[in-house]
């Protein structure tokens, strides 16, 4: 059963998560190239409502690339991605259900910490601004221009954005980089809370977050022999991504 994504986005943040009774992510035979180089091929997995999945693997195996493909930032070479029955080629509806946190913190340097988070809270109609400011220890630096913040403070602000989006699927790329032990534990609890409410999370990390319930997906770097047996077409060069 497919739930209309536009309807979901019109719901309140809590109702949005609870409504997604049939929420699931299905990845089928997914392959991706970057710069003409195949990063992964034939990848298939499923993520059900309330689940978290941890991406493991060596540097260069494609963890970040996979997250960017799922977020709609890189076109797949082949395969299919379905989120709640919505295919990845239906970009608007698909991306309306995703919150992505990559290596960059998605903050506006000329705004204060509070102004940055307020922008995202207002954009997504969230009433969790005050609580999120407290949870991520941002109250004491609320008036500080974000470009003057430390790496850890910027990361806290960037992750706080995820907390106010109320998107069902969280895609998190090394989210705990630069975070201290206390904030890492708090963010792990936030992921658990998100999943307990019916959301899903896919997390690339090299550390053990200690999540209450999670599965693992291990990506291996492709060997030269494997690469030689794969097709060479690039979706950008073919003009498939328009």
Give the structure's gist in a few sentences.
The protein is an alpha/beta fold and 242 residues long.
Structure notes:
It is a single chain. The strands form 2 sheets. The chain has a 5-stranded parallel β-sheet, sandwiched between helices. A 4-stranded antiparallel β-sheet has the order 2-1-4-5. The protein is α/β, with parallel strands linked by helices and 242 residues long. The protein starts with a helix and ends with a helix. The protein has helices at residues 5-9, 13-19, 63-70, 91-95, 113-123, 129-135, 151-163, 181-196, 224-228, 235-238, and strands at 24-34, 37-48, 52-56, 78-83, 86-87, 98-101, 169-173, 200-204, 214-218.
Secondary structure class reads: alpha/beta
| Backbone shape | globular
Q: Tell me about the biggest sheet? A: 5 strands, parallel
Mean of residue pLDDT?
86
Question: Would you spell out the secondary-structure blueprint of this structure?
Answer:
Elements: H1 5-9, H2 13-19, E1 24-34, E2 37-48, E3 52-56, H3 63-70, E4 78-83, E5 86-87, H4 91-95, E6 98-101, H5 113-123, H6 129-135, H7 151-163, E7 169-173, H8 181-196, E8 200-204, E9 214-218, H9 224-228, H10 235-238
Parallel strand pairs: 3-8, 3-9, 6-7, 7-8
Antiparallel strand pairs: 1-2, 1-4, 4-5
